[in-house]
Structures are given as C-alpha cells and as structure tokens.
Amino acid sequence: MNKLLFPLSLLAALLVYSCTKPGEPAQGSLVPILPETEYNYRDVVPEEMSFMGQIPYTGENIDETVTLGRVLFYDKKISFNNKTACASCHLQSNGFADKSAFSEGFQFVETPRNSMTIVNTAWTGPYFWDQRAEILEDQVLMPIENHIEMGIDDVEKLIVKIEALDYYKPLFGKAYGSEEITVERISIALADFMRAIVSYRAKFDEGQDSNFANFNPLEMEGKELFEGEMQCSSCHNGPHFRGWGSANIGLDMVYADQGQGDWQQGMDGWFKIPSLRNVAVTGPYMHDGRFATLDDVLNHYSTGIEDHPELDFRLRNNFGKWGDPDVPVEAIKMNMTSHEKDALKAFLMTLTDHELLNDERYSDPFQMVSN
Description:
371 residues; Cytochrome Bc1 Complex, Chain D, domain 2; 2 domains
C-alpha cells in the first residue's frame, strides 16, 4: 500500500499543474507585488548630496526601468532551475553583499570568490574582483550565464523563460514602450536597478555639514587615522570610499587565485579595491572571504602584509610616512596599537547606512499568492 503513496501524490500534483493556465501563477507561487505608482528612483540622491554624483542611468523611463530591474534582480526564475536570483548572493541586510565566504550557485556548488557589495556601483567600476567587466550592462549578464552561479548557458534562453511569466510583459511595456523582451533590455533594467542602490545616509554623511560634530571622540580619532597616519584613504577615497582600480595587498606570497592576473600579465594577486560603504555589515572580507571580522582585516594591515613581488607600492615602506632612504624597501608594518584599531573600527562603523538596509525601494517584491 505504501508503494502507491508516491505515485498518487505525484499524480495529484500533475493534475493541479495541468489545471493551471500557461503563464498563470500556480497555487502558492511567488509573484512580484508592486506599488500602484512606481517608486521615485530618478531622484535617489537628494540635491544636498549632489557631491555623490548624478546616477548615470541608461534607460529613459527611469522609475519604470528600475522597477523592472528590481523584479529581475529578485526573481529566482531567471536561473536554470529556478533556485537562484541575483539577490541570493547580494543580500540587502548585508549591504548587498553575501554573508558567506563563497556564494552557493544554482546546483548548490560554491562560487570561487566572495560576492562583494553592489552598493554605489554607478561610480565604482570596472566590475568583479578581477575587473573583467567594464560596464554594468555586461556585468549583470555574466552571473546569469555562469555555469556555477545561475546556469543559463545561452542568454537567449533567458528570453524564453521570461516570456512565459505573465508579469513581465506589462513591466517591459512600461519601461520601454513595447512589451518586446530582449537581452539588451534585460541588461539595462538590471544595471539601472543596481545603479539606483545608493548609500548616502550614514552617520558619516550626516556629519558633512557640521565638521562631524556628531562623531564621538573615538570615531573622530579613527577618521583622522584613516585619512592621515594609516593612509587608508590612499586606496579608499572620495564620497564612495572606493579605490581606483585594483591592488595587490599582500594577502599571500603565492596566490591560489591570481585575480586580475588571470587575464592581465603582471597583475598576479591584484583584486578590485572595493567601496568601504557599509563595510561593517558586508563581511566576510577579501576576494575569498578569508577574514570574518573587521578586526581580522585590521590585523592584516597592521602586521600581516606579505612582501609579494607585485605588492601595491602604497603598501611598501617607501610610501608616505614610512619613506626612509636608509631602510630597505619592503612591505610595511603599520604596527597599530589596540586603541588605534578600535578607533579605526569605530570610524568604519559610521559608514553604515541603516536606512538603506531596510529601504523598500530595494527590497524583495515577491510574495506568495494562492489562486
């Protein structure tokens, strides 16, 4: 009798499925629930924060295009087996980074690198740890086609999947003036949604107009160390706390992952310098997630920098305050005190935009519905 349970239950499931019209959500399926009027994404950066820069959107109907991109970003159905979305590896609560050292792909296989934050990506290209994507429109398609991440081996097949979902054609119609679904339109919408995710409401931002009167003494000391003696700002600078390009920061003498060196000669161990915005919640850190905490990161810069042959010049003792013609050129040892580490960490905490982590404009629109 027990042998019949599985076939009967399978038959029942098939009968339910067969009663569902093509394109209609099945019972208990997830569908996007969106506001009647699109959120305002055109004016994400308020006028008083114009120093952040204007968002270089590609789409013309910005609110509608970003809304479409938001749905695509959270939709697991755009992966090969409907198991993985872009948001699976970029969690809003973690500053749109992954809380695991390595993300889990559509077949539960780990990715080879940590998923870094995508906050303020409008101004932080090129993209990926090895900087292989120059523009966001290219970057957003690569994980979809990746054989580990989302598994769509031919991006044209993505169009077929999306066309079968009834909620997409109206969204494409609003964004582009016609319901035609193309790879280019998908990439623009996803890229513009990522551009819209802007962090500008941290304690650091609030202190801009008052010379940081809102900082406590430890946070102010950390700011001074960051910009001065420890020279952190030589790599992480500007309103986005981003670096220009990549760097070899002496993580290893021999890198298992060569980073940019995989495709560019003379760049072994070089990886993108990420933005430090929301860094307190984007761990674990580095391309391989080797550091679980900010304390681990600070310990590396304090005493752990390896003297790799291609170490970035800013991390050698002939740069800045460490310059001394009588000392052999080698990897620096900042030798931070415990108090200096505490101060730096306190300052880094001021870069957390708590409103961003809960902003509905960037949240998961999918909800369970029943017919």
